[in-house]
Fold each of these.
Amino acid sequence: MSQQSTATPESQLIEQRLKKLERIRDMGVDPYPYRFERSHTMDALREDFDRLAEEGDEVSVCGRLVVTRGHGKAAFADLRDGSGRFQIYVKLDVVGERLFDLWRLLDIGDFVGVMGPLFLTRTGEMTVEVRQLDLLSKAIRPLPVPKEEMRDGERVVHDAFADVELRYRRRYVDLALNPDVQDVFRKRTAIVSAIRRFLDEKAFLEVETPALQPLYGGAAARPFVTHHNALDMPLFLRISDELYLKRLIVGGFDRVYEICKDFRNEGIDRTHNPEFTLLELYQAYADYGDMMAIAEELVSSVAKEVTGSFTITYQGEEVDLTPPWRRLSMQEGIAQSAHIDISQASEDDLRAVCDRYEVDLEPGATRGKMIDEIFDAAVAPTLIQPTFVTDYPVDMSPLAKRHRDTEGLTERFEPFVCGAEIGNAFSELNDPIDQRDRFDQQAALREGGDSEAHVMDEDYVRAMEYGMPPTGGLGIGIDRLVMLLTDSASIRDVILFPQMRPEEGVDTPADAVEI
């Protein structure tokens, strides 16, 4: 009795493709050549089709083979490059037996280059009649190709590559199969470029600050820790670039910005990824009112440039980003939604409200932490249209200037859209004595068990002691802004390679060190 095969369908297909690869090599064809001379992208070919077809010019195009139709001595197929897809027609009588034998050994997913003239099919489809065929890369592993059909002149896709876990983990497959995913990341690039243009035109200087830092700071977050062997010292991946950028304000740069990767050792959810992209900008002689004007102008102008309108739709909600945006103090928002005056409430009162909203507080949660949790539970979900939430308590904002009119508050705001915070901004604290006191208070919180409390940064205080002018600072989460402007439900939809749990069966490198 023969032993039953345990080969998977995928492994069987891989074996078939390996046999085809061997036959291709036996034909004297290099399945992985060095280059191909392309005359047009697919989009350019489509735009200039009438002239090229009329003049009878031969074109050369290349891309991934995504669909084949037909058998026997002729076949239609679609090639797709980074700009789009285009139909080709391969016929035995035209290409000859050798190239048609090569054609029969091709599979969906292979990269192919073709040359030939253009023509319109009887159904009006723009097509390349193949005269020359080159295999550019033989795909060994099969793509999970969806089934397609033409229905009333429209391409209908069945069984698309929709497994979310696999799409994030194997983004290269997701991009290869889903042009709409490519569109999201093209828009992401356009958004970042538009931000740079906006700030450059306002005389902000783009700078770079350290990603590896001897001290981490600028936010309330837990860091990733590593070790520098040559210096024999611990280093931290930055959680923010704020303190370095403000050192530059001390040094005499009046307007600076950075678009950088930050890293926070925290959980993963719809709006959080441990590695994320942040814009931070600082302007001397400005305050948080100036930062509000910049924030609403920046976001609305970028939206207009990338989407064509100040009005967008996000997850079914129509949102008008036209300035000016609504202003709402944190105290007013909580009073309206949670029916409590946080300026008068005791810690027991705040804890009772947290219990009402079923907030899971950590032991020893501070007053500021409880207020923050109440706001997130009661107020944030109601903020659909763009809103600046202003004037946060001092103990929630160790780097913000005290409010000029109201004791116990700071001049800080966060912009909210569709229930999510997309940024943070201050009238920056520039009093070195007050800053040292705030750091000391944060140190006490750390000793009490708050792992996200800010660390003391003596050099930053020293820099401030040399004199820092009045300054406004603004941070905007690039990933969340891209989510908003591409109608993406999860932050992992707008990060090319989001952080994932280890894949089952894939080992950690033997030399990996746990810190």
Amino acid sequence: MMTRLAAALVLAPGFAGAAEIELATRIDRVTVYPDGAVVTRQGKAELLQGASQIVLRGLPAAIDPASIRVEGQGRMAGGGGAFSIGAVDVRLAPGEAKPVLDAVIEGKLTALRDEKQVLAGRISAIEAKRATIERFGQTGPDKLGPDGKALPVADWPAVFEAIGTALVQVHEELRGVRARAADVEGEIAALERAKPQPGRPGAPKRDVAIAVEAPAALSAEFTVTYRVGGAGWTPQYEARLSTGGAGGKPSLDLLRRAELRQRTGEDWADVALTLSTTRSAGGTQAPELTPVQVMFFEPPVLYEARPMARAAPAPMAAARAKAEADAIAEQSQKAAAPVAAEAQTAQIEAGAYQASFQVPGRATIPQDGSSRTVLLSRAQAEPALAARIVPELEEKAYLEASFVHDEAAPLLPGIVALHRDGSYIGRGRIGLVAPGDKVALGFGADDKLKVTRAPVRRRENEPNWLGQTRTDLREFRTVVKSLHAQPVKVTVTERIPYSESSAITVESLPAQTTPPTEKQVGDKRGVSAWTFDLPPGAEKEIKVAYRIKWPGDREVTYAPQPGPGPQPMPRPLN
């Protein structure tokens, strides 16, 4: 008979009088969120009869104590095995000192110290030899002959030469040995500085003490889960487009990857890995609005008799401004780079509010912050190809592939690496895409579409008397010519200014304007689109003409208005 019990976190002051039993655990599975992770540990312990406490030591200090959950099951040889789990006490424990020994450095130091002793002995021997030669040189020639008699004068030069040569040799030998001794001394000093410092207390840890009570001695298995920061994953994508060539159907492969990093303070070795799209550290409830009162502004009262009272807020305001600037700078810092993918795909489990990916097999994620990339999914689609042209900004056509995202899990915002017909063409970005939504990706310039745009007419009048209306008439002509061997779908986007002032009127000139297929693209006022199929070798002409009127005593300016998402820098109207 087996019993499974769960205990919510209860902070207790301690378990006086209860026997302590060490609980050795291993990390079995990890669920990684974009902003954290939930770690699941498993372990076994032999429980004593009566009350005791199971202690799990060395958990990271960054764990959320409120997220700790303990489950247990017991088994007895004769049947049964029920026991109860009581309070869970979370304690902050100092980290252990872990001196680091470098065997290579220690070995080099030992060899150098031995060599230093040998060199010291050689120096002493050479100095003794030099002293002997110098004493011999101090003996007069009158005592160097046989039986202590005078040496013949003819032999004196040979004696002087021998003494001088011997002194030169011994000095040279002594210089070389001393130089080597100095080098050894320097190497020893450098290695001493390079040695790891003595062990210092490491980062603090958390110990979890679990109060249990068993009617009899039994074997128990425990599962402990907790949330920890310092971990996360970011989505990355790779889109491979095959245009199909002449007469062929285009195809697109979309690979969804996840780049994982963690600095939790514990190694995730050989664990079952799950990735979730839920943000575990975000808000859990919609914000509350507080009432706002409007009133007349009352300037602060200043007292000339107390100048220090006026000067005091300045440092506080400066400090507050600096703190806000530092916070903004810290939030703006980011990191990400494409990494090689794993070969297997993950199993997707989509719920009503979140999606998770079960990575096949077991994974190892070290705690040093190095990245690990896994392949989550691979989807194939038959995209619709079109060329998109914005001639006012660039006289060039860009190939665009669009398809419907039909996977159960949404696409999270991320960078996408783009390949066209086997060639890497650059990187783009995918926004948040829900299942069933359309995705449009750009795949570089289409050099087989020639685009030209030129102003056809501009007429602007200057008022001659007060109250006259000024007008500005502009007309542009865009020509798109195809060099393709098959028909292509083309969309040209143009704009005319719009006005929110009743004194400024903007009117399109239908007689000089090609009728658009979309008078307004989305919610972009004044932006129109022309979509058409262009046969091989054919060309299409699009004209845009408009007139602006405003009072002659005023000046107007053209201010581009940003739309949703990143926008290219527009050029002035010409």
Amino acid sequence: MPDGVRLAVDVHLPEGTRPGAHLPTVLVTQRYWRARVLPGAPDNATNSTAEAWNARGYAYVVADLRGTGASFGTLTAELGEQITADSGPLSDWIAAQPWSNGRVGTTGVSYGGDTAVLAASLGNHHIAAAAPTSYDFDPYEDLVRPGGIEIQPRIAPYALLLSILDARAGTTCETSDETRALCGRTGLTGATPRPVDGPDGPALLAAARAEHAGNANLVEMAHAGTYRDYRDGPKNWTSGSVGERTEAIEEGGVPVLTLAGWLDAGTANGVLSQFTSLDNTQEAWLGPWNHGASHLADPFLPERALTQQERAALNERAYAFFDRYVRDGEQPDGRRQLHYYTFNEGQWRTTTRWPLPGTRTQRLYLGEGNTLTRRRPSPGQSGQGGQGDQSGQGGQSGQGGQGGDLLRLDPTAGTGDLDRWNTNLGAAPVVYPDRAAVDAKLLSYTTAPLGADTRVTGNGRVTLDVTGLAGSAHGALHVYLEHVAPDGRVTYLTEGQLALENRALAEGNPDWRRLRTPRTYAGADARPFPQGRAESVTLDLLPVAALFRAGDRIRLTVAAANPDSFELLPANGDAGYLIGHGGARPSALDLPVVR
């Protein structure tokens, strides 16, 4: 690299490649080691993904990011400025090889997808296309701190995995029972990064890995970076945000192919933010997949691994995209298409606009008896100063008070071990069981059976009239959109959450946040939630596409915690709220409905 740091790179070429071959190149920059060596296993550097690209006439280049694998350097920040910048010199080096046609396509999954699309902001004239899968458009809002709340139970094992990969503080697979189990699940037991070729490879690997001991600690940043404007030297939330780089990406004009799952953390929100804010040529796919698109993740169908044919079809989209722009050098024409799948219908549709043409907002009001109705409550009903049944321990008060229901934080009412926030660790499946039992511990509001099919597609929004009770000053709210079948089964569709100290609305919104409520998540705008006085609180639902058939019911469930995936706010788990309905600020659910 320009600063002298040496990166470990594997170059896979089609058999028989000679100088002057003019090959298009696929570039992957990898956080999780470009290749592994296992004890007793032959080190022939095979890579099935590389072989597939080679068979199509591409060179395939995969590099360990600086500070990782067999590369030298120290990682001063996850998704920091320097690792993005390194893709520029790497692309220049590729273009200078005697077998290159001078064009590079960046791609990758998860972290590699993040670096692939961030590379499009560099303005490097050799980078001709980007095809990220399951990438994090904005790491703060879409992954680590949705609504300003840390995904604490999920980030801790992931950070431990990074420590094992980097041998940070001497951490290895054999450090503890926890590390042994984690290595077993991720295939790291006994593995080491593949050294570079040649007799000096092992010594170079040892020297490089010694520099990784000082790598940044993700848990420390996740804890310390409470607000979006957090900055500690090179560690910050903005350098790895595609949203913060949209102007540079537009200026570079690199066409982008994106593939993500509706139930993969907040990646669908990122895909739609990208689609609506970038003028670049785009092809986007939102489907029923987990993180990495290895498993079916449709809450109305049994979970299963994708078939070989299904995975091949997904790969073909990237092949065809790169054939146009990396192999053939086609000039981007500004076309933008989004292909999306609808839950409970199993249908794919294509659009060039988002929100979809013809979308209308259907408002459903929270009402007495835990109802959701299109009829606005009468002004006489008010959650302001209501005296809900404050003796409950976390369930519904329903009829309590003058238009208000009591909600207490229940540290047992979560979304399960295999929810959308867990799939990022090891590309785990996404499975939501019947939510009826959990909903009984929370506040749920349900419509009467629908008289006609209703298709919800896009970003919903929830507005609640909230009175804070004891413990609420630094509390949080979580909301869930659910489908209730005629037989009573409750199916999770999507959710939203907000640390209440981040409730302040901003006067304006960056273009990349146009689908989201104007909000800064800045430390200067944070303030404790008042007790004993009602305030209106707006929460964004993550986007979804789902069909409610005639006879089904729509449900909104409100919680004060999701202990399976988020930190408890407050930490002692003791807080209460009165959720009002009626009065001047009635609580309501706004859904984007299309024909």
Amino acid sequence: MANWQETFSELKSQYVQRSTDRLAQIIELVTKLISNPMNKDLVQQLSRHFHWLAGSGSMYGFQKVSAMGLEGERLCDQIVSQPGAAAPQDLEKLKALLQELSVQFTGPEESGDTTVNLSKARAVVNSGKQEVLVIDEDQKDLESLRKQVEESGFAFRSARSFATTIAELEKRMPEGLILEIPLPDGDAYELVERVRSMPGGDEMAIIIVSKQTGFLDKVRSIHCGADAHFEKPVDMKAMFRRLRYLLDKRYQETPRILSVEDDPDQAAFIRAFLESAGYQVRTCTDPKNFESYMSAFQPDLVLLDVMLPGMTGYELARYIRQDERHATLPVLFLTTQGQIDARIESARSGGDDHLVKPVPPALLLSSVSSRLERARFLKTLLRRDGLTSLLNHTSFMEQAQTVIAQRRRHAGYTALILLDIDYFRSINERHGYPGGDKVLVALSLLLRRRLRQSDIIGRYAGDELGIIADGLDEAEALHLAGRLLADFAAIQHSTLSHSGFYATCSAGISILDAKNMTVESWLGSGYKALQQAKNAGRNCAIAYHEEAVSR
């Protein structure tokens, strides 16, 4: 694959050629307008050409072309808004503007900064086990954090000072770092800055835990490069939820960006530039096809030009916002209209940002990456259960539907395992709702530790958790469920009023028959098997068989 500079050089040559052709069209339109100054349709066509030049010139290093294009666009809009024929002085301005434009593509172009660091935006792929390095001077705190780290499904390493941390990092870079301050032998904020400057340090998730609760301490955490700052006493659930979110970023699919742009020069630049940064990009040149692009491509972010043939970008944004499925979808406007009225209209139509063309590449990349990050975090909050951090009911059902569609295309085994905590109501009555919550969390943590990254785990109902395990037949699913039940039964749970108690759960298993099952029937058969396990005495796993149910 060609690097960005090679791609840009090729796009620039194509741009100069197209702009020369466009200039010839502008000259022809101005000549016709001089002969027929009453024809406002000619003026609108001219405005379109100037709009394209205004938006694309600086992208390819022609700053003056963008400025002249913007001047021509405003002049055409002024002519259209005035009653009657185009004034002679306006026609003279157009002629003078054409003379200036005609020399822009024949002489040396201005130097434009088209370089930008793309490495940070590229998707990071890591197939190794996620490891967390904890730095804490206090041995008791280290042991407590070790338990939390391992229960959350991560590998644990530790260090107790600035010097030993550097030594550990030089051995091997972990995926995450939890740093409690202050340190006995150095400044913790300086340590974070040093970590960020080390090879691979810019990709690490770093969390600072501090006894210092001042606002300036949080600001210093941000400035030194930490991803999060938690004060003591720490809300462990919140901290590890944040850590998992930060680490999961490394395993996300490449974000998809839909660019709606009818100017081929701008469309080509945007696509090539963002693809060089590691994104998937599709270009919709005709807004009439927008709905089909949205449906087929399922973008994670939409870039909209405002001036489009037949409709405006504002109308497309309103269309997006009418669908609740796109509530978190970022919409960015790229337009030559920088007036306050245009910015207000962008906000009113549901836009998340309003970037004025020509957009500096670094600003475009920064806006895209930050909006994608924010949207992904919001999706995580919406898709995850607040207590267990597993997929919520809706998300679990969506994943089940996707699995069925995949299995219809590619044959194979897929097992559904529904787990239900036995006598959960009694647990709540004896130990209170916090006790019941602890039991649920313990089961969810067990599933995270014991199951594969590819397995889908969700909170199907109040005390029912679901597992979709690809590649397991009935015997393998029964064996896995039996191990999970035994491991869970061995866990001792504690509350403030009870030193320790135990709980069990039951499991119902259904093997997917993709040709004949829907999501509802698949889950229904799993639930029937679960009821059979309950009726059989609980703390056991039973697989669904239709003949067994009919008897």
